Amino acid sequence: MKKLVIYYSFEGNTKLIAEDIAKAIDADLLEIKPVTEIETKGFMKFFWGGKQAMMNEKPLLLPLDKNPEDYDVIFIGTPVWAWAPAPPLKTFFDTHKFENKKIALFCCHGGGKGKTLEKMKQALGEQNEFIGQIDFVDPLKRKTEEKVKKAVEWARTICGKINCNTK
Ligand SMILES: Cc1cc2nc3c(=O)[nH]c(=O)nc-3n(C[C@H](O)[C@H](O)[C@H](O)COP(=O)(O)O)c2cc1C
Residue of the nearest CA to atom 23 in ligand 1? Predict the structure, then answer.
């Protein structure tokens, strides 16, 4: 089975988890990037990013360098913004429809994930099989190694269950 890890990350937490999962299960990696990123990483990020999230804005994305259609097993990760997937993911879900994929979801947040994972499932639709979900509290800030280990074990267990190393 062909495996892909898709993610967006503003400050590196989701990127860290995505990269380690991809390495652990030998998957390709696809980073989603908006054409225009929020400019500040300071406190104003909550204002501009929060506005984008609350207004349900869907920023334009840079072209993807892999086609998710080519894959059977897809892990998708997002930071939580205003208790929801980050806006670039919303654009991605609007512009890419999946069918008959095995999908695992993960998110990184500061302690209040809300219904982010449920919202991702809803956006992806029931025509896919959801094979796992997990969340992490700011892995770059605290207990990084422990959280990476948890992510790797989670991904490997999922892969083992579905025999994802078969051709
Ligand atoms: C605009 C914005 C909104 C956020 N909203 C939430 C939230 O609703 N709940 C939460 O727990 N964390 C929230 N966070 C924190 C991030 O989800 C968290 O720090 C996450 O680990 C960041 O992932 P990243 O480094 O991959 O961007 C928000 C961060 C930003 C910038």
Answer: 79
